Amino acid sequence: MDSLNQTPTDLPFSNDQVNLTALPKIEDIVFQSIEANYYKVFYIKWLLIALGFIAACSVFWIVNSVVLAQLDQAPLVFQYLTETLLTAISIYLLLFGCFWWSLKKKGYALREHDVVFRQGIIATDILIIPFNRIQHIAIHSGLLSRWFGLATLQVFTAGNHVGDLSIPGLDLSMAQQMKEVVLRSIQKEPFVENRFEDEA
Fold first, then answer.
1. What is the mean pLDDT of each run of 10 residues along the chain (200 residues)?
2. What does pTM read for this prediction?
3. According to the model, what pLDDT value does residue 199 have?
4. Is the sign of the CA dihedral 120, 125, 129, 135 positive or negative?
5. Cα of 134 vs its chain's centroid, Å
6. Rounded to an integer, what distance in angstroms lies between the CA atom of residue 79 and that of residue 167?
7. What are the counts of helices (DSSP H) followed by strands (DSSP E) for the chain?
8. Residues in a beta bridge with 109
9. Distances in Å between the alpha carbon of 11 and those of 3, 14, 16?
10. Which of 24, 48, 103, 145 has a beta carbon 3.0–4.6 Å from 150's, enabling a disulfide?
11. Is there a contact between 167 and 153 (Cβ–Cβ < 8 Å)?
12. What is the pLDDT of residue 151?
């Protein structure tokens, strides 16, 4: 009853303004680049894709050569198939360049209360996941990555079984160290569910 009789000025309430200039800035984060060996994995994968392109183009060339020859269009065979091949090569080089540049832009950082990942080709996206939102963390290493001693660190939050964050191109020992740091931090900061996700 006494609390009901208190005036608003007597209630323990404060809403001080936050000094935005004193907050940590994204620009101050020192991002670590992915391991140089990961580029070797990238080149091998795209070499395999190139071999697939060559095989597909070869089959396409042979089949269409036979068809055009039967239609008495032999003079058009070389011109038509050459244009098709050049188009396929252009698309391949464009995709290769985009994915290669995306590797150059990738970076990660581990802070006291969160893990940060940077990616993007034209626009740069920065993803920040607080430790108290992390439900599970795993290390994945494919055949090629394992061959070069690399791994991908996958971070999972509530309601997502695919993985909210994947940091590729990590040295295997570094990935294990990061996992241990995150797990220790999770124990200190209890998991907090997002009520907006629960209501959806």
1. 55 76 77 92 92 82 72 66 81 91 91 90 87 88 91 83 78 92 78 46
2. 0.71
3. 38
4. negative
5. 17
6. 45
7. 6, 6
8. 116
9. 8, 9, 15
10. 145
11. yes
12. 94
